Task: inverse folding
């Protein structure tokens, strides 16, 4: 999974490029949206740290707010983790995460890798239960005629913010998940 090797800005740019509304954004707008999403992720991370989150042991903190489930069987679609809004539950798919470990050249601290996924999904929990979806905070006009204007949110902004949230704890994730790192 090469996204672990990218800097946050590179990762954010990749995510925004995959957004269906990407072609409608000017360069200035792209940069502005990325900075916006990153600042939200960072701000939430600092709030969590201030209220007792230990990034090395995130389960203790997360369990106060939502359920955690570690599934051993593979998911129906290829995903590593998800946040189920209706059940208020973070689900991790351990078989998929194990594949990342096998695919990386470094010796991975599995516990820390799992922490990254837990924290990522916890940001989505915060979106639905506290701050609102980041994807809907900035909207782009997709259709305009007379008095009719249709706007759409940018799905990628939620992901960018979630990654920014995680990296506030992990710093450079490749170093963080390296079992030989301090
Ligand atoms: Zn996500």
Result:
């Amino acid at each position: 999974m090469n996204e672990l090797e990218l800097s946050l800005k590179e990762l954010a740019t990749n995510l925004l490029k995959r957004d269906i509304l990407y072609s409608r954004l000017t360069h200035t707008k792209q940069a502005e949206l990325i900075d916006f999403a990153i600042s939200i992720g960072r701000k939430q991370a600092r709030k969590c740290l201030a209220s007792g989150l230990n990034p090395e042991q995130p389960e203790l903190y997360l369990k106060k707010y939502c359920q955690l489930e570690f599934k051993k069987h593979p998911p129906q679609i290829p995903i590593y983790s998800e946040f189920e809004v209706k059940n208020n539950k973070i689900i991790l798919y351990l078989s998929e995460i194990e594949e990342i470990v096998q695919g990386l050249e470094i010796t991975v601290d599995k516990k820390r890798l799992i922490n990254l996924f837990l924290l990522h999904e916890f940001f989505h929990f915060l979106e639905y239960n506290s701050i609102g979806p980041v994807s809907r905070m900035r909207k782009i006009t997709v259709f305009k005629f007379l008095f009719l204007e249709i706007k759409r949110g940018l799905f990628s902004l939620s992901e960018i913010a979630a990654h920014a949230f995680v990296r506030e704890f992990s710093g450079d994730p490749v170093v963080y998940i390296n079992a030989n790192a301090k």
